[in-house]
Amino acid sequence: MLPGVQSVPLTALRHPTVSTLLDDHRALLAELLDGLGSPLHIVLPEVFEENITALRQAFAETGADVDILFAKKANKADCFVRSAAALGVGIDAASTAELVKALAGGVPGHRIGISGPEKDDTLHALAVQHDCLVAVDSISELRRLAATARLAHRQVRVLLRARTTIQPGSRFGMAAAERSAAVSLCLELADHVSCRGFSFHLNGYSPEERAMAANEMIEHCLDARWRGALSAELVDIGGGLPMRYVDPQLWDEFIQQNEPAHYHGNKTSRGFHFYPYGGMPPTQAVRTIMNHPVDGDESLSAKAARNAIRFIVEPGRSLLDQAGFTVFRVQQVEDRRDTDGYAIITVAGNSLSLCEQWFNTDYLPDPLLMSAQSLADKVFPACVAGSTCLENDMVTWRKIRFPRPARPGDHLVYLNTAGYHSDFLESRFHDTALPLKAVLRLGDAAPRWRLDGI
Ligand SMILES: Cc1ncc(COP(=O)(O)O)c(C=O)c1O
């Protein structure tokens, strides 16, 4: 093993469409990068559509009745909204701009859910006009929303966001007394507010915890019905379905061997907090949640069916599994192998286009090195830096064992970046343009591409 270099490569899993593009259509990718600039996000609506079908099927297999709302915040590309509209999937929007884009992309208002704490009056008014389902976070928000609906001579459909017993310290949602008062207020303002059910916020990716929280929401629906809110029939289980970027065995090995010396600047000494990259696939998580026993032997989905409860799920990241990747051009390579044991590859672009850094962490799946000239295979340990003037602008802090030396003009491909890893934190720092997105469809013939945009 080379000194100071991690022993486990974290090979990124690849969808067959991604493999075909990387293996058979490199010239096209190179042309796109040349023409559209580095980094370039490639987005793949076909894979997104496939994920929707798989998720629907997983819910159907458990007997759960579900509406899927794609959490738009996970990627700003318009092509995903269009795909959702075409497949009858709704959108979870958390801002006026997201709602406008969802409507412009062809998603009808009744399929749009509005989430986020203390939403402003502009978002409320648009949501009321378009008959969106609004998740309300507090009594004060409920009062404001009801006033907006009254002015518009409409009745707005709401979910009440409740605090869970699993994470009672969350800053989101209403604790028991406020939740109960909110049900009363819905009954009082019934001409303008219709309580349709409950939602919750849960940090983390545990399917068991999500099932337990959903069960609490079923109980809240039953209680609300008993008090007269007869239309309380929806339980929104949120997003947070886990997903798998790398083989779980590799991931376990990585976690066991991980140490600060594997990173540029001994970065882990500052305390990384990693996304669980070897997690359960989303369809398996759906089965685990819905089959979870909640009342004796009765599963969550069976209890919901028995009580005429329907589910809403708001996946962001997991619907984007494999639905995009990001290509950077290598700008410079500083070979420090003799002194430090590794090189620093500087790419055209910055770490805000691969935005795990916000969470004091690193995007861990290994990037692929694609070179025009073929060099002899020889392990080349290197981390990857952005081309801004900031010391902390590291696209990959971890020292990757590239299979051969990198050269200026080569390409680095970061796989599976569509869910939060591309535009979440993008910035026009240094007055640079924001990276573009090329929408690629493989179909049966040659790949077709266009720039993203409605
Ligand atoms: C209300 C709500 N719905 C859905 C999501 C999407 O979660 P994920 O991308 O983990 O599926 C989030 C994430 O922040 C959220 O806050």
What does the model show?
This protein has helices spanning 16-24, 26-36, 45-61, 78-86, 96-104, 121-129, 139-151, 176-188, 207-226, 248-257, 282-290, 300-306; strands spanning 40-43, 66-71, 90-93, 112-114, 133-136, 156-161, 193-199, 234-236, 293-295, 298-299, 310-313, 324-334, 343-347, 368-370, 380-385, 394-402, 411-414, 436-441, 448-451. It has 454 residues and is an alpha/beta fold. The chain folds into 2 domains: 16-44 and 322-451, Lyase, Ornithine Decarboxylase, Chain A, domain 1 (Beta Barrel), CATH 2.40.37.10; 45-244 and 281-318, Alanine racemase (TIM Barrel, Alpha-Beta Barrel), CATH 3.20.20. Strands 1, 12, 13, 14, 15, 16, 17, 18 and 19 form a 9-stranded mixed β-sheet that branches. It has an 8-stranded parallel barrel with strand order 2-3-4-5-6-7-8-11, surrounded by 7 helices. The chain has a two-stranded antiparallel ribbon with strand order 9-10. The longest helix has 20 residues, at 207-226. It is elongated. The structure holds pyridoxal-5'-phosphate. Residues 71, 74, 92, 115, 238-241, 314-318 line the site of pyridoxal-5'-phosphate.
Largest sheet: 9 strands, mixed
User: What spatial form do the alpha-carbon principal axes imply?
Assistant: elongated
Tally of strands: 19
Question: What's the mean pLDDT score?
Answer: 94
Specify the number of helices: 12
What structural class do the secondary elements suggest?
A: alpha/beta
How far apart, in Å, are the first and last alpha carbons?
50 Å
Uncertain runs: none
CATH superfamily of the largest domain: Alanine racemase
How many separate domains make up the residues? 2
Write the CATH fold name of the largest domain.
TIM Barrel
Q: Give the amount of beta strand, in percent.
A: 15-25%
What is the name of the CATH architecture of the largest domain?
A: Alpha-Beta Barrel
